[in-house]
Amino acid sequence: MTRPRAAWYRALFRLLLAAMLLSLSQAQAGGEGKGFKVGLTAVFLDNQTSFIRQWEKYLARRLGEPFEFVQRQSYREITQMLAKGQLDAAWICGFPYVRYRPRIRLLAVPLYHGEPLYQSYLIVPASDHVTRDIEDLRGRVFAYSDPDSNSGFLVPQVELLRRGIEPARFFGKTFFTWSHRDVVVAVADGVAQGGAVDGYVWDTLSQTHPQLTNRTRVVARSRRYGFPPFAASATLDQRRFERLQQVLLGMSDDAEGRRLLQKLNLDGFTSGDDSLFDGIREEVALFERGKR
């Protein structure tokens, strides 16, 4: 090989190597290719392992890289992992979303009946024809879903505080079920004489498991709040944030995405606005004052 040709090959090799290193560094800077880890809790998606695997596969294909749902029992476990940057994003509740700002940021909000809103339901056994209000449950056994749930804990606590009632002394006994579905089960079975549950979950169960919800009665529906959102870690790279957001928002645009949304009993996702959670912020402030 002549010297000019050898020099040309060396120059070409250096150029190709530099291009490869630049491409690699850019991918690493954007976090691309490492996969997404997104948190879920049993509070919201309970006993739906098969569906979760289907959703994982769909999101992985749409994102073009590995995708994993990380499941934990409580909102607190998942939200703390998210705030520490151990997760890229998570489907949480508006209560921890408000509390953990600015370590987390709004990624997407589900649309239910066309709006990013939902309610808390106060439920009692269907055999209870007397209870008309939360004050009728004084001294009774009451089921909450999760201590970081807006609909399953914060709403009834604040309702009592607004009436000048100390929640800790109001009920005869309280307990956490760690899922909204299990609040319904506890009330239906008479283990609890009342419970607070996510209205979206109760409505969905009334379609899929009417034999369960028919054994309960909705006593009261709260005002409407921002629907439990998908939140991202503040450390998530902006390009990856936008990619994940676009895929979630685009689920309603393709047949498979719509099929998955139908199983979730949702219409789609919107980017939403932080002001959706102002109502929860007001209640958190009242709740914190009530604890002093």
TrEMBL record:
Taxonomy, superkingdom: Bacteria
Signal peptide: 1-29
Signal among keywords: yes
Keyword Chaperone: no
Keywords: Signal
Gene3D superfamilies documented for this protein: Periplasmic binding protein-like II
Protein name: ABC transporter substrate-binding protein
